[in-house]
Specification:
Number of helices: 16
CATH class of the largest domain: Alpha Beta
Shape: globular
Distance between the termini: 5 Å
Bound molecules: pyridoxal-5'-phosphate
Strand content: 5-15%
Radius of gyration: 22 Å
Number of domains: 2
Number of strands: 15
Structural class: alpha/beta
Amino acid sequence: MLQTVKEQDIELYKIVEEELNRQRSEIEMIASESYVPTQILELQGSILTNKTTEGFPGNRYHAGCRVIDKAERLGIERAKLLFKAEHANIQPHGGSQANQCVYAAILEPGDTVMGMRLDQGGHLTHGSKVNLSGRFYNFISYGLDRETERIDYDELERLAHEHHPKLIVAGASSYSRIIDYERIAKIAKSVHSKFMVDMAHVAGLVAAGVHPSPVPYADFVTSTTTKTLAGARGGFALCKQDYAKQLDKATFPGVQGSAHLHIMAAKAYTFKRAMTTEFRDCMKQVVKNAQKLAQVLKENGFRIVTDGTDNHLLVVDLRTKNLTGAQFEKALEDVGITVNKNMIPFDPQKPMITSGVRIGTTAMTIKGMKEDEMEIMGNMMKAVADNIDRATVLENIKKQVLELSSKFSLYEGYFDN
Ligand SMILES: Cc1ncc(COP(=O)(O)O)c(C=O)c1O
């Protein structure tokens, strides 16, 4: 790939080459990352990008759509089949846009909505004041129970009865436990609220059947096709048939313009691949790896938020190691392990410092790592934490990281043709 780019634009070629080398040599543990198969790279880079169109298959604003309509239809049908959904819209350009499309479909500016607090695991688009969601709508945040560090459903119910939201949003960016969708759906029903689940982080696990599906309980389900789904860089939204027209109209012309056909083709491939036994086995291993890593870190003196994980990520409280998230993130990056600093529940530190890190196992599991490697990684993380100021020890760990990652190949032959 990229041979003509190499000839025409060496600066950009070198950036891609450098990034490929980084992805090959580092241990990637950002919970929202994965490695996509080459078919996704090919489809995202395909000639389908040339077609401009607005609207939906069979109802376009431009001529010449008879071929590309097939790609979008295929994606829609596969999404419906994979998640057992009544309706799918695969046009949202990202997870944020998918959420915005649902909001635009059923809310008016100023309406009351409930979502999970950003500093306890929610996402920016669930009502943060720095995001359009928090500026357009009156978001009331719910959060976690201080003791269990799990969603405080009683508090959520109390807030719902107090504020009578038009919509309750569930789903999170850094919550390691199964969310009780059935319970929140009941709460929503009891106050005549609609219910939306943003399953962006766990969509791959849901597709593989290793995590409960929100689809039977929610009026709307939104997601990215990245993260655990490990596919195209984009989003999608599912809903009950009753809301299909509203959702589509909110997406176009409500929120977005022309459709990205090359990305939708890659989304269609993402859904097909998520139906395979190979993908299911990989997702099972993703969870096993996260649980193993949590166990090893615990044995190594770290505190794991909620004492473990049900999914692909864990949040680690670094206070037992007298470290902040910012310090540990930097120290790990220096030895070649990529994680991100993350607020722990009721964190005394500021968001740019934090007392924790969030660690995900999707990318490294896709590369082929299993429990044995998680043990090595957990031990390396302990060694980094315990030797944060010892340059020679850290240098040695860096070598071990390189040695470990060199055992797992990535995009072999990428630049060969
Ligand atoms: C729960 C959740 N929803 C939505 C998004 C936004 O997705 P995107 O970055 O594609 O807009 C994210 C991304 O991190 C997320 O974690």
